[in-house]
Design a protein that fits this description.
The complex is a heterodimer of chains A (284) and B (204).
Chain A lengths: L12 H11 L19 H9 L15 E8 L7 E6 L3 E3 L2 E4 L5 E3 L4 E4 L4 H22 L5 H14 L8 E8 L2 E8 L4 E3 L2 E4 L3 H11 L3 E2 L1 H18 L6 E7 L4 E8 H12 L10
Parallel strand pairs in A: 1-11
Antiparallel strand pairs in A: 1-2, 1-10, 2-12, 3-4, 5-6, 6-7, 7-8, 8-9, 12-13
Chain B lengths: L9 E6 L3 E7 L2 E3 L2 E4 L5 E5 L2 E7 L1 H22 L5 H13 L8 E8 L5 E6 L5 E2 L4 E5 L2 H11 L6 H18 L7 E7 L3 E6 L5
Antiparallel strand pairs in B: 1-2, 1-10, 2-11, 3-4, 5-6, 6-7, 7-8, 8-9, 11-12
The chains are: A alpha+beta (284), B alpha+beta (204).
Chain lengths: 284, 204
């Protein structure tokens, strides 16, 4: 079966029709069967009992995040414009920092990414499913999927599990035939298109910087610096966020992943820039 | 989230050869939000005795006032400086008086007695004293600290070694505890002087 092409059925029209049906069928909607709890036990109650804050650290899921993305147009012909996606890298369970180097920008295709906020496992698993769907779509339709379609598939999938305790807050961002686009998708089933967007425990802090300094037209350098700065300030105020800032720039032609930047280092540079004296002098 | 980790914060103390070190972080928060980064949790009681108060900082302030009040009365009555052993007993009594509605703070005492012997102790919210000879820690980073201190502590450390061990221990703790951090302050208490140093830490 594997490795067969249409050439193998060329001679017989009946076989050809059959082969087409078998090989170009639309993939079924991902309907997973997850292990079920015994009858009478509600999944949400079960999770609360065994995985909430009252449980040990190792039983809690990884959470706490700042992620942001925005669309901008090039200010000069020398700039590329597109989308900036910036995220922190901390995973925490309560006040315990379980990882300092999580990659929260997940690839969906060559031109699309999804960000990760909320339950880390939920995000990783479901974006993998979306990525699979997008790849199959591209093979079948011989054209890349739009951000709109991918995010809608994502949102519909999450909606199917609504009320069962999934925790996902993701931004699907990318470039397609319609241009640069960002869709915010969450586990409540919500999906909305935005130009400027931030998700996670530090999102309000990030919005503070973003709303203040965002312009629809920026140079590439300006835009990248804005993303970095918003993440840096969010990690400073929000104890759920920290580590390094991972940044992805999606231009009309390519997807550029920038090297991770230590947010603490960025903060000290920022304080230097201001000339603010940050040395603490205790007084008796 | 528990009230004990509402404001966050960590205090650690280590004993050396005729010297003690006591250190705290500088963060004060409201759950996940950092409010200020210049709040030390270590307070001077006498020249050679310091107290650290971790936990809910509103209660910690109140308790500190009560400690100072009792200590001042003691010194007036006895006309001599209070010893760390006596102070810890006093704080323990104070804490146990609130057995059925305790302050949400864990006190820690570090200092040198009149023979310059180091004394360190910590207690729970209702005054159960434990005074080991090596190191003590209280606050949201207690578990991380006890682990690293076990590795850094050596018998009879001199003041500079002791400072290094304490500073490295608290910095390691701040790497993993989200509720503490944003800088630290270390007090090295020796028989003739107290050395205060602020340490830069990660600001996230």
């Amino acid at each position: 079966m594997w490795g067969e092409t249409f050439d193998d059925f060329e001679n017989d029209e009946g076989e050809m029709a059959m082969a087409k049906q078998n090989l170009i069928a639309e993939p079924a909607r991902a309907d997973f069967t997850f292990a079920k709890l015994p009858l009478g036990i509600q999944p949400v109650d079960f999770m609360k009992t065994h995985f909430a804050e009252t449980a040990g650290k190792s039983m809690q899921f990884r959470k706490g995040t700042t992620t942001l993305a925005f669309v901008y147009e090039p200010a000069t012909p020398a700039d590329k414009g597109g989308i900036i996606v910036a995220v922190d890298s901390r995973a925490s369970s309560g006040e315990y920092i379980s990882s300092k180097s999580v990659m929260k920008i997940l690839d969906i295709g060559d031109r699309m990414v999804a960000t990760m906020a909320g339950g880390a496992a939920d995000c990783q698993f479901w974006t993998r499913i979306v990525a699979k769907y997008c790849t199959l779509y591209e093979l079948r339709e011989k054209t890349s999927i739009t951000v709109s379609a991918a995010s809608k598939y994502f949102a519909n999938t999450l909606y199917g599990y609504r009320g069962q305790g999934l925790s996902v807050g993701s931004m699907v961002a990318g470039y397609d035939k319609k241009g640069p686009q960002i869709f915010k998708v969450d586990s409540e089933g919500d999906r909305c298109q935005l130009k400027v967007c931030s998700v996670g425990s530090g999102s309000l802090n990030a919005y503070g910087i973003l709303d203040n300094h965002y312009k629809p037209k920026m140079t590439d350098d300006e835009a990248r610096k804005l993303g970095l700065r918003a993440i840096m300030h969010a990690t400073y105020r929000d104890s759920g966020s920290g580590g390094v800032c991972n940044l992805c720039h999606i231009t009309p032609t390519e997807k550029i992943r920038l090297p991770p930047m230590d947010v603490s280092k960025l903060w000290y540079e920022f304080a230097d820039e201001l000339g603010r004296d940050i040395t603490y002098n205790p007084v008796e | 989230m528990s009230i004990m980790s509402y404001t966050g914060g960590t205090v650690v103390a280590m004993a050396g050869d005729e010297c003690v070190c006591i250190a705290s972080d500088l963060r004060i928060g409201e759950q996940m939000t950092t409010i200020a980064t210049d709040q030390k949790k270590v307070h001077k009681v006498t020249d050679k005795v310091y107290v650290g108060l971790a936990g809910f900082q509103s209660d910690a302030r109140t308790v500190l006032e009560k400690i100072m009040f009792r200590k001042n009365l003691y010194e007036l009555r006895e006309n001599r400086n209070i010893k760390p052993q006596v102070l810890s007993e006093m704080i323990s009594n104070l804490a146990y008086q609130h057995r059925f509605g305790s302050y949400f703070t864990e006190p820690l005492v570090a200092g040198l007695d009149d023979t310059n012997k180091p004394y360190i102790c910590c207690m729970d919210t209702i005054g159960c004293v434990s005074a080991p000879r090596d190191f003590v820690a209280v606050g949201t980073g207690q578990e991380y600290l006890l682990g690293v201190c076990e590795n850094f502590w050596r018998e009879n450390m001199k003041p500079d070694e002791l400072f290094e061990a304490t500073a490295q221990s608290i910095l390691s703790c701040l790497e993993r505890d989200a509720a503490s951090g944003w800088g630290a302050v270390v007090y090295t208490i020796t028989k003739d002087k107290v050395n205060v140093s602020t340490i830069k830490a990660r600001m996230d």
